[in-house]
Structures are given as structure tokens and as C-alpha cells.
């Protein structure tokens, strides 16, 4: 599971539940548990991991394998894995359980405003401290840990993935259109016209889930100000009408006006978008290395196997971020419930951290640890190994997805109105005003000044 599934798609039905959670006191977990300090005998029992991942995915398989190994030397231990891959359903479940104080030992969470509330209530174990104690923190990729960081600089989710998001493109389509991979975001827009003139949908987009279009909104602000713009915006310390925000809104409007997306893109899901690209109908798709099995193996049609390339997030005039700075994530993190943190949970986590990376990397995945090489599958195309090597030359900054930064109600407003903006049914000015109003109304519930 990863960012492609979207993060905060709910607002209306969750708003009341979130109020229930945020109304709780602040003395849930003991200070010792929050810091990761527990003592006493290790008594095997069943612990539960509630997650937002496909049950047949590599993360689940690797964790389950480690748990089975651990159980052999700890009779009576069992890891009960409960998967809810549909992200909106998962989030609603987590919020409901949090309000009732019934969260399990482990549960998936991003460094969102909701999770920040749990942290302030001392309900999350400081995973960064645990990794230090285990002597394992130095093994993790800095960007993997950075993705999990809360605004206070702490890490409260264990990174189980590592993925880079690139723009995958059809080389033949670009040759026919007489264009090269764009160097700037403005060139990216200009490329849409010749691609469409040659019979291609310029950009395949999952419009149904909201977050993919929100990625495009974030690109100009990230290039101009790094993550500082969205960090300020979410608290009302910056406005969408500021120069960086306006550049983002205008970028979406210009992409739509240039015909960069397919007609009816708002009803297209993830599978629809990937099918458009892997069947050669679309020239570009923004996707992550979690999909290397689709984009860089012999599962592609024979006509495309050596015709798929990639380029990084284009830059912009006056950019403050480098060409090797772009969206890099370690996926949704595994949080540890401080209320159920006992010697067994801690001991299993230590074993998991030591054993998991190698098992995950053996499945052709990029491990969140630096010292664990990826096993390239036998059916990989040359681009598979090429893109894996990008992890060795990444910059020091990663673009934070806005759906993990904005409060859930504001995020819902952004995603709904982005579709209207891209379709030409809302002006950039009206869009920006709607975002600023949503932040003014909703952010005080999540962010203290």
C-alpha cells in the first residue's frame, strides 16, 4: 500500500468522529510508553495490526513472514493482520476506534492533522526513539524517516516502504509528437498540444480518488518554496492567493485548458488510468516505483516493453528546489499504540526491524533501509534497474503530499474543487478563495498557534 490510494478523502461523515477524537483528554499513554520504555517479562499473546494495505501485497507478505518466524521461538505469539485496502473505509474505522479508545497495538497512520491529535494525547509511541534504542535508525533512508516526521520533528510511524514518483512516458508518442521530456512545468503544458494532435491522450489521470490531481496542484508551490508553503497554508499563515499558491492553481487551470487530461477524467479510477497508459493510449502517467511490476516488466504489451521511459518532476523559473527533489515517500507508517505497548510488542518490533527489510527487498521492492539492495526480478525491462538507481542520487528534500498536510475538511474542499478548476467550471480565483475560506474555518481545530 502506498500513496496512490489517497489519504484523506473523507470529510463530511468523518467530521463528527474527528471531533469526538479531538475532544479526548491528553493523558492516554504513560510517558514511559510514549518514549518506548517498558519493562517486565515477554509474555507471548496475540497482537493486532490494523492496516490500509492490500492483503496480497509485498508489505503484508513480508511482515507476515517475519511474524511467523518470531512465533516459532515465542509459542503463543500471533500477529492478527486486518487489512482494509479501501482507504476511506480504513480511515473511518481508525477514527471510530480512536474515539472509543479501542485502537489495536499497531495501526497504519500518516503524519496527518488527525494523527497529530493522537500524538498530543500521548497515544503514539515515539518510533524514532525506538529505532535509536534498537541501534537501527542509521540504517533507514533519511527521506524515508523524513516522510514520517510530524511537525514537531518526531517520527511516530515505522517506514515499511520507499517509493519515488516519476512521470512515465511513451517514447514513441514523444517521437511522433516531435518533443522531448519537458524540463519545466510550462513545457509540460505545451507538450499536450502536439501529443493530442498525434492521437494520444497526453496525461492519464486517476481523477476519481482526488489525490492524483492534488499532486499536480502541489508541484509549482514545491518548486518555488519547497514544503514551506503548504506547512504555512494549512495553519492559515499563508494564503492560496499568495504567489506560490496562485501558480499552483493557474497550473491546474492551464493543464485543463490545454486538453492535457482525458475527457471524463473525473470518473476514471486508478486502474482506468494505468490501463490507458499500458495500452499505449496515453502518453504520460504520474506513478510511483510501487508500480514497477506494471511499468517495467514483461507484463507490458510487447510493443511497449522497451518503449517506456520516465522523467523527474520538471522545474520552474525561480525554483528553490533541485531537479532531484521531488515526491519520495515511505508510504503510510505503522504506528504503535502507547496504551497497548508492552515488552512483547517492543521485542517483536525489534525483530521486525531487523528481519523485514531483506524480505521486502527480495520481492523487487525498494527497502526503506539504505543497506538492503533490491532484487531485480527476472522479467524486468532495463528501465527497472535504471529507476532503482535513482534512489542513490536523490536530493535532500521530498515534496510532502498535500493530502497528508491539510486538515481533512479543507482537503475535501480542495479535491472537489480541483476537478471543477481543471474542467474549466471554476476560475482560479474562485478556487483559491474556497481554499482560504476552508482553512480559516477548519484549521483552528487541528493546529494551535
Broad shape: globular
What is the mean pLDDT? 92
Structural class: alpha/beta
Uncertain ranges: 1-20, 22-28
Largest beta sheet, briefly?
5 strands, mixed
Helix content: 40-55%
Number of helices in the DSSP assignment: 19
Strand content: 5-15%
Instruction: Give the tally of β-strands.
Output: 9
Radius of gyration: 22 Å
CA-to-CA gap between the ends? 34 Å
H/E topology pattern: HHEHEHEHHHEHHHEHHHHEHEEEHHHH
Report on the architecture of this protein:
The chain is α/β, with parallel strands linked by helices and 449 residues long. It is built from 19 helices and nine strands.
Notable traits:
globular; five-stranded mixed β-sheet; four-stranded mixed β-sheet; 449 residues; 19 helices; alpha/beta; 9 strands
